[in-house]
């Protein structure tokens, strides 16, 4: 920061109020580069502008880029915490600790607020009157558990529209797996009594579930209802089998707990959460923070741990007990407890693990953090080598840490849409994905559509500039993109066209005969290619495929009330014949979503890869809601 500007901002901060709130530090182009919260805004923000030698290198770099500081007042410090987390999620400031998962983790949602509740796979926890269980590590495991619970406790698996409009029982009732509440064969109280066992099972009250089921089994046997008794017997054995596969930490508590651990060095830090539900470990979740060293003495462990907790529990399930690997002090612990209570409406304990059981859980989290850290670092270093190869082969001025790819899509004559996909450090950065409805173009005109998209994209000066733009197409599409960028004043951004080889001569012109992906550069006659196993090829072809997938799923969202047939139209590799086979075998989209991949793979013309792709894409519609202005 220039000396005069530094003094101007520092003097302005002296006039800040002394109450609680959130401060927003801005850099060039009025872009927010850091967001923080404070009990006393003036004191907290002034501390950045002191000549303290205790500042970390990251803080000194942050201060050098500050051109403006704004603030938002809050009534309490708890409100400041809540506001800070939501603003960080919205603006993704460069200098904040930002959580970026490789994937969203699934939950089991039990719509307990409904008259006739059912089970769903959910990706987000919402305040909708439902009960949420998780997060789990596998969507297939969640689907399998839901399928098991539906069969065991006779829970309806039909969609709400189908449930409301049915006039006679479906096949599920006829085979004894549902009590047909849709046609009033069972009352609301009777139905909820039946499915209560599933809720108790998910809450970990397994002894109570087994005891109740055994009593029902004995009663059915005494009444000589042997088929009912046999089904209950099988269900009891299935529950016991499920329970034996779960690691038991403490079978005397019904508390939900998260244990936090971490491991890192100058290359980055991995924070791990171990999820314990009703005394049983159901999974772990890693969060990799690149370029953050937890061992740096200038980094306050209490501060970054609280920042992590505040962001992590902004969207995720909040347990009864959060066990920490560092002592953040009683004041911060109490404050975090108030914040989490505000979000969950339940009492939450946030504490440094001092008891033996708590220490063991944190140690488990630390061990998992170390193992996952080594894996992430290895993957990160491999990605960096790929980015360096991209820089060298494409003659870029710098390593392309941020790559953007655009896809224009018009489906069956419907309106044209576009997708913007972003890779950072060689991996998807889904928080930066954007979707565009084409507003100024009628009919199919890819050039005009791309012109609109790029114009709208680069009006957003708050977005980071990419070091490379990937265009799906050959020389023609590349020249169009170059012309557009020149017209909008951004010809400084490197562009590459990606297309598959079509003729024998294309292979002969290439530098190395190894792959059918061709990369075209401005001013160069022959295409550039990469070796088949090159990480650089995986990155560039991966972002192209992701942009195509993202655009197609947008079409699916726009077509509200689509039929089962049109939903299946979006599955890559699923033709008309295979679609008819699926429609003959399954009655609804939910049935396909809940099906086992192995069952679909057995159908004529199917295989395991296609089966998994079908299920993954049909479940994909719950994610990625971002649309560009």
TrEMBL record:
What residue stretches are annotated with the GIY-YIG domain? 18-97
**Residues in UvrC family homology region profile domain copies:** 260-485
Looking at the record, the residues that make up the UVR domain are 207-242
Q: Which InterPro entries match?
A: GIY-YIG_endonuc, GIY-YIG_endonuc_sf, GIY-YIG_UvrC_Cho, RuvA_2-like, UVR_dom, UVR_dom_sf, UvrABC_protein_C, UvrC
Query: Where does the signal peptide begin and end?
Result: none
UniProt entry keywords in alphabetical sequence: Cytoplasm, DNA damage, DNA excision, DNA repair, Excision nuclease, SOS response
Per the UniProt record, one Pfam family is UVR
Where does it live in the cell? Cytoplasm
Known PANTHER family for this protein?
Answer: UVRABC SYSTEM PROTEIN C, UVRC/OXIDOREDUCTASE
Function, as annotated, reads:
The UvrABC repair system catalyzes the recognition and processing of DNA lesions. UvrC both incises the 5' and 3' sides of the lesion. The N-terminal half is responsible for the 3' incision and the C-terminal half is responsible for the 5' incision.
Q: Which family does it belong to?
A: Belongs to the UvrC family.
Q: How does it assemble?
A: Interacts with UvrB in an incision complex.
Q: What is this protein called?
A: UvrABC system protein C
For this protein's source organism, the top of the classification is: Bacteria, Pseudomonadati, Bdellovibrionota, Bdellovibrionia, Bdellovibrionales
């Amino acid at each position: 920061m220039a000396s005069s500007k530094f003094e101007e901002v520092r003097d302005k901060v002296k006039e800040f109020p002394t109450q609680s709130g959130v401060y927003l530090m801005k850099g060039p182009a009025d872009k927010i580069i850091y967001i923080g919260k404070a009990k006393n805004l003036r004191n907290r923000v002034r501390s950045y502008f002191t000549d303290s030698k205790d500042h970390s290198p990251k803080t000194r770099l942050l201060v050098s880029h500050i051109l403006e500081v704004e603030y938002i007042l809050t009534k309490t410090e708890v409100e400041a915490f809540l506001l800070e987390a939501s603003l960080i999620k919205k603006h993704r400031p460069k200098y904040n600790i930002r959580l970026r998962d490789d994937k969203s983790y699934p939950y089991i949602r039990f719509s307990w607020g409904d008259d006739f509740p059912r089970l769903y796979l959910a990706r987000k926890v919402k305040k909708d009157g439902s009960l949420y269980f998780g997060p789990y590590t596998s969507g297939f495991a969640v689907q399998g558990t839901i399928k098991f619970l539906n069969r065991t406790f006779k829970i309806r698996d039909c969609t709400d529209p189908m449930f409301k409009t049915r006039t006679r029982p479906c096949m599920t009732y006829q085979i004894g797996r549902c009590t047909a509440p849709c046609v009033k064969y069972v009352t609301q109280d009777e139905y909820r009594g039946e499915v209560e066992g599933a809720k108790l099972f998910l809450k970990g009250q397994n002894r109570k579930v087994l005891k109740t089921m055994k009593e029902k089994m004995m009663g059915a046997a005494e009444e000589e209802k042997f088929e009912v008794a046999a089904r209950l017997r099988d269900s009891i054995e299935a529950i016991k089998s499920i329970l034996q596969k779960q690691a038991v930490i403490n079978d005397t508590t019904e508390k939900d707990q998260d244990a936090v651990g971490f491991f890192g060095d100058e290359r980055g830090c991995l924070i791990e959460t171990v999820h314990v539900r009703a005394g049983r470990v159901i999974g772990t979740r890693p969060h990799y923070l690149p370029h953050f060293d937890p061992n740096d003495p200038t980094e306050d462990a209490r501060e970054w741990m609280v920042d992590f907790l505040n962001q992590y529990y902004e969207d995720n399930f909040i347990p009864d007990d959060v066990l920490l690997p560092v002592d953040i002090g009683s004041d911060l612990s109490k404050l975090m407890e108030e914040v989490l209570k505000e979000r969950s409406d339940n009492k939450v304990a946030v504490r440094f693990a001092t008891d033996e059981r708590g220490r063991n859980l944190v140690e488990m989290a630390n061990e998992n953090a170390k193992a996952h850290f080594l894996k992430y670092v290895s993957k990160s270093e491999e990605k960096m080598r790929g980015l360096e190869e991209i820089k060298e082969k494409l003659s870029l001025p710098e390593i392309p840490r941020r790559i953007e790819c655009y896809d224009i899509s018009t489906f069956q004559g419907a309106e044209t849409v576009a997708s913007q996909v972003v890779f950072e450090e060689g991996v998807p950065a889904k928080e930066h994905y954007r979707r565009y409805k084409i507003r100024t173009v009628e009919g199919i005109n890819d050039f005009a559509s791309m012109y609109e998209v790029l114009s709208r994209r680069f009006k957003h000066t708050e977005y980071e500039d990419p070091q490379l733009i990937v265009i799906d197409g050959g020389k023609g599409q590349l020249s169009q993109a170059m012309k557009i960028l020149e017209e909008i004043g951004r010809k400084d951004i490197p562009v590459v066209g990606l297309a598959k080889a079509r003729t024998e001569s294309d292979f002969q012109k290439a530098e190395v005969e190894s792959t059918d992906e061709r990369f075209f550069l401005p001013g160069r006659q022959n295409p550039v290619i990469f070796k088949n196993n090159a990480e650089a090829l995986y990155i560039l072809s991966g972002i192209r495929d992701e942009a195509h997938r993202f655009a197609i799923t947008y079409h699916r969202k726009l077509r509200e009330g689509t039929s089962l047939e049109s939903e299946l139209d979006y599955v890559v590799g699923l033709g008309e014949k295979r679609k008819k086979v699926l429609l003959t075998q399954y009655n609804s989209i939910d049935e396909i979503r809940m099906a086992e991949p192995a069952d679909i793979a057995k159908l004529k013309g199917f295989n395991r890869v296609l089966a998994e792709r079908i299920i993954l894409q049909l479940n994909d519609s719950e994610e990625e809601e971002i649309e560009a202005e």
